[in-house]
């Protein structure tokens, strides 16, 4: 298989086994759970340094979390062995996003700076959903939380790994 784990996008994490027939509950990390988690979908996990393909055989949603059946995972023990595994897909399988919308992996590692050129830090994480996210930036004096909103993030250059911000008065002081 030509897929590289480091170049795949996270779409969820297996929370725990569900029932006795090998099903698992997934904590989704995607804004498109109905498209990503459907029978026949292929997801990938890394276990013991090896990439494994998981094919979903059944899917139902319980409290907005997918409960999935996986081909070859037939017992509670098989399902428990997957608990905690991150689920990923190749980046080319991701849905096309609307303009000015970004995948989490696109923003990770971006350098964040002010319009005047002052370095704030590097994006360590992105929290929230498609409709309300914030950047978690590893700054010089600790973690800085910056709303991912166009009035604040005035320029996002994904290929250049650079985000220019115009934070409201006091935002950086509040966080730093």
Mean pLDDT: 88
The poorly predicted ranges are none
Percentage of residues in helical conformation: 10-25%
- The secondary-structure element order is EEHEEEHEHEEEEEEH
- Give the N-terminus to C-terminus distance in angstroms: 44 Å
How many DSSP helices?
4
Binned strand content: over 45%
**Class of secondary structure makeup:** mainly beta
Shape: elongated
Compute the CA-based radius of gyration: 19 Å
Secondary-structure map:
Blueprint: E1 8-18, E2 23-28, H1 33-36, E3 42-47, E4 50-62, E5 65-70, H2 76-80, E6 86-90, H3 104-107, E7 111-114, E8 119-129, E9 132-139, E10 142-147, E11 153-157, E12 162-165, H4 171-175
Parallel strand pairs: 7-12
Antiparallel strand pairs: 1-2, 1-6, 2-5, 3-4, 4-5, 7-8, 8-9, 9-10, 11-12
Structure description:
This protein has a 6-stranded antiparallel sheet. Strands 10-9-8-7-12-11 form a 6-stranded mixed sheet. It starts with 7 loop residues before the first strand and ends with a helix. It has 4 helices and 12 strands. The protein is mainly beta and 176 residues long. The radius of gyration is 19 Å and the shape is elongated. 10% of the residues lie in helices and 48% in strands.
Identify the notable features of this structure and list them briefly.
176 residues, mainly beta, 6-stranded antiparallel sheet, 4 helices
Task: Tell me briefly what this model is.
With 176 residues, the protein is mainly beta. It is built from four helices and twelve strands. A six-stranded antiparallel β-sheet has the order 3-4-5-2-1-6.
């Amino acid at each position: 298989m030509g897929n590289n784990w480091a170049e795949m996008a996270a779409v969820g994490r297996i929370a725990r086994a569900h029932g006795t027939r090998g099903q698992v509950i997934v904590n989704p990390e995607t804004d498109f759970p109905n498209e990503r988690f459907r029978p026949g979908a292929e997801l990938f996990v890394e276990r013991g340094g090896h990439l494994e393909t998981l094919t979903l055989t059944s899917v139902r949603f319980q409290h907005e979390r997918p409960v999935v059946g996986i081909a070859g995972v037939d017992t509670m023990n098989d399902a428990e062995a997957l608990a905690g595994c991150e689920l990923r897909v190749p980046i080319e399988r991701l849905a096309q996003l609307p303009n000015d919308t970004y995948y989490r992996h696109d923003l990770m590692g971006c350098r964040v700076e002010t319009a005047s050129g002052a370095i704030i830090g590097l994006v360590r994480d992105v929290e929230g959903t498609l409709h309300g996210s914030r950047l978690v930036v590893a700054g010089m004096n600790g973690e800085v939380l910056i709303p991912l909103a166009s009035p604040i993030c005035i320029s996002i250059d994904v290929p250049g790994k650079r985000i220019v911000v115009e934070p409201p008065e006091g935002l950086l002081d509040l966080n730093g």
